[in-house]
Amino acid sequence: MQTEQVRIESVQCISPAGLHRMFYKDWGDVANPNILVCVHGVTRVADDFDVLARELMRDYRVICPDVVGRGRSDWLKAPQYYQLPQYVSDMVTLLARLNTNKISYLGTSMGGMIGMVLASLPENPIQKLILNDIGPAMNLASLEFISDYIGQSIKFSTFDEAAQYIRSISPTFGQHTEEQWNKIAKDVLRQDKDGSWIKHYDLNIAIPMRQGVNPEALRVIESTLWAQYDAIRCPTLLLRGAESALISEETAIQMTERGPKAQLVEFPKVGHAPTLVHAEQIAPIREFLLRSNSPKKMFP
């Protein structure tokens, strides 16, 4: 039986407000030149990828950061910098720490937006890109819902109460076992000094998001993201929950026809976003990463 190899590391990053540390989970053999960087969604954490990392660590060194303001990582002194340019800057710093010029990248939701921006840059190190339920065009109502709840302060006296809350706002994740739901909840909750359970991120991450969630700002953001998507040159896989309200079927099809012409895999009975803990969700990721770059049809 393979012994689990995971380490908690950190790297010092910089924002206009000063220095901060970004922590990351480092799975597998540190000497393995095949590196997969996995980046979570807006309120999620590195631990989201534990199941996926265990499945892939025989073939890849898997790096899973807690984006600044989440999980183990520091909070920014100035919350206005909780935006894509800062997140991309931190990823570049992380890649410098890894001392590599070749990676694969998987991003869920916000993590996928970071990946799109990074993959669009000249001389970027991304050889293969996986976007999990995210694209250049997003549903405004879904963004409004997300920006509303992420800044709400919650406090529960027991883990069971807190876990039920996380479950109540996550029905679009699809079906999971009780054990899986508890892990989904535990990953984004922490115990406060008084023993109560609260969210494991800086509530101020909601501030710049609220400012950007309006029709005018969204049009500008989408125009920029489409230009960045069209600049991507590496093989790209798009995963989509078939019932996703954030990225429409029309947008997904557009993504298969322009830019890197992503290969599309949809998961039935799932919305935003697939959690990538089920075998049927991990299988297309493994196949995409391990096959050669020669053209080949994937999954009907």
Polypeptide structure, described:
The longest helix is centred in the last third of the chain and has 16 residues, at 215-230. This protein has an eight-stranded mixed β-sheet with strand order 1-2-4-3-5-6-9-10, sandwiched between helices. By secondary structure, it is of the alpha/beta class. Helix 4 runs antiparallel to helix 7 (206-212) and helix 5 (159-168) packs across helix 6 (178-187). It contains ten helices and ten strands. It has helices spanning 50-56, 84-98, 110-120, 140-150, 159-168, 178-187, 206-212, 215-230, 249-257, 279-290, and strands at 6-15, 18-27, 35-39, 61-65, 103-108, 126-132, 189-191, 197-199, 236-241, 263-267.
Question: Helices, strands, pairings?
Answer:
Elements: E1 6-15, E2 18-27, E3 35-39, H1 50-56, E4 61-65, H2 84-98, E5 103-108, H3 110-120, E6 126-132, H4 140-150, H5 159-168, H6 178-187, E7 189-191, E8 197-199, H7 206-212, H8 215-230, E9 236-241, H9 249-257, E10 263-267, H10 279-290
Parallel strand pairs: 3-4, 3-5, 5-6, 6-9, 9-10
Antiparallel strand pairs: 1-2, 2-4, 7-8
